[in-house]
Design goal:
alpha+beta; 2 domains; 4-stranded antiparallel sheet; 21 strands; about 20% helix; disordered N terminus
Length: about 375
């Protein structure tokens, strides 16, 4: 959104480079009587033999599809994970600025219908898994993602918003029809979409997160301090997770203390950009765990609930080779679950044998299901 002048030359050169030459296609369609355009990225491993997920990546206010394709880049992830990306192009609002219509400034563009039309067009041209359509975006693109899960809920499985929010009008009249997994990445020093909200057009981030946690019937939040791997970026990250919602839905918020109006981990650095996390990786890791019906392949083993009043803690967290569970009263079953919903370890633990080894696991976030509770564990 705010990097248009800085990145224009880099985008113009990179767009024609064979480095990113997998299959990048500019497409057009008529929607609402307007000729609309969007950029499609097809990974090299796409064959059409199996249905693949579809990710919409919406640009910010004043930006465009080409800039967002590079700035909030999902293409290297798509090349290995095998999903197709659509980068929609906004229209001009009353001030002549590119945007997506989420209720600002008297715009008449119907970007909800445009999104639905793009889904239809993509499904006609490619083998798309229509139960795995996701939305993400920067700033205005984050607003658009929330707008879609309130206005096009039956076609969007999960979303990730980066530096965006939701308008009060969209939240008040939200008509989501299924539990909706939501990821929100936002800096506390964002001067464009303020963390504390802005009267009339942007909800506070805490209100947004609480709205979706309540809508999904999630449990109480848990917080992990992410490793401060980049000590020179002037920011740190807390991961606040609301787990256990309907259909295994979750709401996760990466709160970047000191972070600005930027895409975390972007290859195009600017003041306020956090490099402890990569927003593109976090968004895909989150949304890809779901389809329109809920979590894909969740663990099914039952967990014995001994006492719902027992307070459990995990330490150390982050863990390197092992961690312990404190607060157990007797022997219980446990499951350790990866971010894609797969059981990576099962067993029994007790107050006298409460250590779980993780030295064979990859670095990342896992969920410990034990004693009727779900605890988040970071393996470092």
């Amino acid at each position: 959104m705010i990097f248009k002048s800085i990145l224009s030359l880099a985008f113009a050169c990179a767009f024609t480079s064979s480095t990113f030459a997998q299959q990048t296609i500019t497409a057009n369609l008529m929607s609402g009587g307007i000729n609309r355009s969007y950029i499609i990225y097809i990974p090299a491993n796409y064959t059409g033999a199996t249905a693949v997920p579809l990710l919409f990546n919406f640009h910010g206010y004043t930006s465009n599809a080409q800039q967002q394709m590079f700035y909030g880049d999902f293409r290297p992830i798509a090349d290995t994970a095998g999903f197709i990306i659509v980068h929609p192009e906004g229209t001009l609002d009353n001030s002549g600025t590119t945007h997506f219509n989420v209720g600002w400034g008297g715009s008449t563009a119907d970007d909800v219908a445009f999104t639905s039309d793009m889904i239809d067009a993509m499904a006609a041209a490619y083998n798309i898994n229509l139960e795995r359509v996701y939305s993400t975006g920067m700033s205005n693109g984050g607003f658009m993602s929330f707008h879609l899960v309130c206005r096009l809920s039956d076609r969007i499985a999960a979303i990730g918003s980066v530096t965006g929010s939701i308008t009060p009008a969209t939240m008040t009249s939200c008509n989501a029809t299924h539990p909706t997994p939501v990821l929100q990445i936002h800096g506390t020093s964002d001067g464009t979409v303020p963390y504390a909200g802005a009267t009339g057009w942007s909800q506070p981030i805490t209100s947004l997160v609480n709205f979706w946690a309540n809508y999904n019937n999630c449990g109480a939040p848990s917080t992990i301090n992410m490793p401060n791997t980049s000590t020179s970026d002037g920011s740190t990250v807390e991961k606040i997770s609301y787990l256990g919602g309907d259909n295994c839905s979750e709401v996760v918020h990466y709160k970047i203390t000191g972070g600005g109006h930027t895409w975390a981990g972007s290859a195009f650095p600017s003041s306020g950009t956090n490099y402890d996390i990569n927003a593109s990786k976090e968004v895909w890791n989150f949304v890809s765990r779901y389809d329109i019906n809920g979590m894909i392949n969740p663990c099914t083993a039952n967990v014995e609930a001994v006492s719902s009043t027992v307070e459990l803690t995990v330490y150390p967290n982050p863990a390197r080779s092992e961690f312990s569970v404190k607060g157990l009263k007797q022997e219980v079953d446990f499951e350790l679950i990866s971010v894609i919903g797969a059981c990576v370890q099962v067993g029994k633990i007790s107050s006298t044998s409460n250590v779980i080894s993780v030295d064979s696991l990859h670095r990342g976030v896992y969920f410990l299901k034990v004693d009727g509770k779900v605890l988040e564990v970071l393996v470092d």
